[in-house]
Specification:
Length: 40
């Protein structure tokens, strides 16, 4: 891979990191209600 940042790749990585943060927040928020905990 080239080190030169392709605008498209930069855009994708931005979206990916944003989604990653949102997904992590969702996981943390839903943690008490996750299926593993509901089964106990």
């Amino acid at each position: 891979m080239s080190i030169k940042l392709d605008p498209k790749m930069l855009f994708l990585s931005k979206i990916q990191s944003k989604l990653g943060v949102k997904f992590k927040n969702l996981l943390q928020f839903n943690h008490p209600y996750s299926p593993q905990n509901l089964d106990k």
